[in-house]
């Protein structure tokens, strides 16, 4: 317990949103952006890699899935590590790992070594995603938490679009290996994180490190005062007190399956699995499917980038609606909307026909699906207590990555049998199942502090 007996949550929740909060947000969001670029780049490079190595569609699907295999491992481990040893060190090392792995991808001379390096890249990215959402959810007050986490996720489609733009201009000039080399450069970003991102005071407090928590909180409070240009801060308001103590490495995982959190865990795992199975089964193949239909490499990349632009207004709309409608209804609407548009995209995917219909349905599909991402990243960490938040987020992400792993592989197997219409119909069905799960079993978390949700 800190100054005058106030908890970390009570001191954090009373803080007005300031420039300091925005700096933390930008640093975490930029790390998210660079990770997104690395992961999305396979969407734009897969066709060229497939051609160079003479891969079948099934082999290309396996390569596209390799990063997701690594993400399953990374997300599973990082949550437990962060709940046991802290958010900040795990966040830092995840960025170093994906930067190194991206460099190694640029050196790959065979598809086997490239697959191995993409697995390592996936481990680093899988570690970073759940830690980023946990850190931000614990540092931003409840009244703005949903909006900021949803906006953080918005850097995902921005990274996707940036990857497309980068590949569009550079792929014809330097080839896919040098593009991976370029993507390794942002790993130096970890130096900024070391100086500007604090450890979560909520985590320090529940770990029993009260003096360290108080020191971090004093620093945060002073930076908020400096940012606002005033000496006084609002008085803390009493919140539910959550008694906890440092646990073992596996105690956080056990907590996910306690009577209080079991239904939440089963619900969110199901949603992540089906949503990501559908999403990556479609988006990992957007560019390659266009090439399969007769478009040139640069033309297919161009259309994929145009379609991805729909994700930008999608996440902005979701960031606004999660604080107006709530997490649950926005999640259902974005999943159903994405499913309907994915189905229509598949039916319009006789690409030599109506390109206008293809682009329109594709834009709307990405509008809803990137809105879905924004809600998922907002919703998931709110379902768990500080002692298990990163583990809960990490394992939900890991289960989702199993869906991500299967998605491109299933697409590579199904496409020769059903064609593009069947692939996108399957994706639409996955989104419908995820929406039904949220509707039946999800809880609303809008406007509540993390401590209030812990006792819900």
Task: Tell me what you see in this structure.
With 456 residues, the chain is mainly α. The chain has a single domain, classed as Growth Hormone, Chain: A (Up-down Bundle). It is built from 18 helices and no strands. It is globular.
Tell me the layout of helices and strands.
Layout: H1 8-13, H2 19-53, H3 57-85, H4 87-105, H5 111-139, H6 142-184, H7 190-196, H8 201-206, H9 210-228, H10 251-256, H11 262-283, H12 286-292, H13 297-308, H14 311-321, H15 327-347, H16 355-379, H17 389-441, H18 450-454
Helix pairs in contact: 2-3, 2-5, 2-6, 2-7, 2-12, 3-4, 3-5, 3-17, 4-5, 4-6, 5-6, 5-17, 6-13, 6-14, 6-16, 11-17, 12-13, 13-16, 14-16, 15-16, 15-17
Number of strands: 0
- Helix and strand element order: HHHHHHHHHHHHHHHHHH
Question: Fraction of residues in helices?
Answer: over 70%
The CATH architecture category equals Up-down Bundle
| Alpha carbon gyration radius | 22 Å
Characterize the overall form: globular
How far do the termini sit from each other?
23 Å
Structural class: mainly alpha
Mean pLDDT: 83
Q: Please outline the major beta sheet.
A: none
Q: Spell out the CATH superfamily.
A: MFS general substrate transporter like domains
- Output the CATH class name: Mainly Alpha
CATH topology: Growth Hormone, Chain: A
Total helical segments: 18
- Give the tally of structural domains: 1
Strand share of the residues?
A: under 5%
């Amino acid at each position: 317990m800190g100054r005058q007996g106030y908890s970390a949550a009570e001191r954090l929740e009373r803080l007005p949103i300031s420039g300091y909060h925005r700096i933390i947000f930008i640093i975490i969001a930029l790390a998210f952006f660079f990770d997104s670029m690395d992961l999305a780049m396979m969407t734009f490079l897969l066709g060229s890699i497939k051609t160079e190595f003479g891969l079948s569609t099934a082999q290309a699907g396996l390569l596209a899935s390799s990063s997701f295999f690594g993400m399953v491992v990374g997300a599973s481990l990082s949550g437990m590590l962060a709940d046991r040893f802290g958010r900040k060190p795990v966040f830092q090392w995840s960025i170093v790992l994906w930067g190194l792995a991206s460099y190694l991808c640029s050196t790959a001379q065979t598809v086997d070594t490239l697959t191995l390096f993409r697995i390592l890249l996936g481990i680093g990215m899988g570690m970073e995603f759940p830690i980023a959402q946990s850190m931000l959810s614990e540092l931003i007050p409840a009244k703005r938490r949903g909006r900021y986490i949803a906006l953080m996720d918005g850097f995902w489609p921005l990274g996707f679009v940036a990857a497309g733009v980068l590949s569009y201009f550079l792929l014809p000039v330097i080839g896919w290996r040098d593009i991976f080399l370029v993507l390794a450069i942002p790993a130096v970003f970890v130096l900024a994180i070391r100086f500007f991102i604090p450890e979560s005071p909520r985590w320090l407090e529940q770990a029993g490190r009260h003096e360290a928590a108080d020191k971090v909180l004093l620093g945060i409070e002073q930076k908020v005062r400096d940012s606002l240009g005033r000496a006084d801060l609002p008085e803390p308001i009493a919140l539910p007190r959550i008694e906890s103590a440092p646990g073992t490495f596996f105690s956080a995982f056990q907590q996910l399956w306690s009577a209080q959190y079991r239904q939440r865990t089963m619900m969110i795992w199901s949603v992540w699995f089906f949503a990501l199975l559908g999403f990556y089964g479609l988006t990992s193949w957007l560019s390659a499917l266009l090439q399969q239909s007769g478009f040139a490499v640069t033309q297919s990349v161009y259309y994929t980038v145009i379609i991805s632009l729909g994700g930008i207004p999608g996440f902005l709309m979701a960031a606004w609606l999660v604080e107006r409608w709530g997490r649950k209804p926005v999640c259902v609407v974005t999943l159903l909307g994405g499913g309907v548009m994915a189905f229509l995209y598949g039916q319009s995917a006789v690409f030599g026909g109506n390109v206008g219909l293809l682009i329109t349905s594709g834009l709307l599909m990405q509008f809803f699906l990137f809105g879905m991402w924004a809600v998922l990243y907002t919703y998931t960490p709110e379902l768990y207590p500080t002692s298990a938040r990163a583990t809960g987020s990490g394992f939900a992400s890991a289960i989702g990555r199993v869906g991500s792993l299967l998605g491109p592989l299933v697409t590579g197997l199904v496409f020769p049998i059903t064609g593009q219409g069947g692939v996108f119909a399957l994706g639409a069905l996955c989104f419908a199942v995820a929406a039904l799960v949220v509707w039946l079993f999800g809880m609303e978390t809008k406007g509540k502090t993390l401590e209030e949700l812990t006792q819900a």
